[in-house]
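Input.
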Amino acid sequence: MRRQIGSAITAAAVCATAFAVLLPRATDAGAMLIAQDDPVQLADLQLESALRNDPALIGRNVEAALAAQDPDLANSFVDLAAAKGMPIPDKLSQRVTEAVGEENSSQGIATRFFSGLVTGNAVDGASLSGTLTGDLCVFGDVRDIVREGRHLAMGEDTDRLLLGLAAAGVLVTGATFVTVGGAAPARVGLTLVKDARKAGRLGEGLSRWAGRSAREMVDMRQLQNAVAAGSLARPRQTAVAIRAAIRAEKAGGLVRLAKDVGRIGEKTGTRGALDMLRIAQGPKDVTRAVRLAEAKGGQTRAIIKILGRGALLLTTGAFNLAMWVLSAVFALFGFLSSIKATTERLTLSWLQRSKIRRLRRLSAAPSPT
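Output.
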């Protein structure tokens, strides 16, 4: 009986230890499973876990962003630290402030604006303004369509996705003027998606989806004729000819995507939107990213840097998370079962000893005469 009681107590101790070890992981796993459809809550849970395991994470990333000459990202980490109540050394915070001020100087903004206007490549707000100026004048989209269209006509490698995005841009630009800016988010979004494509920063899955959408909306034969007759010197006339080659009824998917990207850019800035496009694998990811950007604003870039695609959806397998929860439940069940067995055996032992003592008293008592 003593061996049985000892075994039950040992099992209870082992199960209690296992439960104590598993409980934090199981709690986090359960919370993530519950929050898997809410990107904001999911990002918060994963951030808390990451910062709990590595309190110096934000400080290191601020230093790295400054070293990479990305003050916008460094400032995003400062915003995140403030939101999480984590102090940043005054000297480091001052360095971030100075770097942001230098980047936003009049000369720097003018230089990047002109670069965006001429090259059509946007890397921040200033260069995006230049790129948008060209796109709103139709010049930027026509330039991209004419270039890719001529590659297509000559049998050379053609970026059909870029071609489709520029074609959608021609439609949206017209809608922007007609609605007096009502389609501006879509116009901004298309410009950002185009630039992400040019820079190779568009997620592979999102590229495939957008490529299929682009092929459906453009009549390639009619576009080749428009490009052959068009000229960059007459962008508006060329745009009219190009617009005739675009199936407007097929542009809905790309336009919705562009609107979402434009909304992300409004909340996080140009670089934040480009970071999001790099990790997104489809339009659903972009829709989730809108919710995250609207809730986190300037912190979004830092969150993406830390979590990657995990900022948008549950990247750890649901089965693995469920196993942590089940393991904790089994450990708790084992502990309770062991306690029950220990209690039963102690009770049985006590009853047996009581019975023996009673029998001994009865046998020792003098017999009645």
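The two ends are 40 Å apart (CA to CA).
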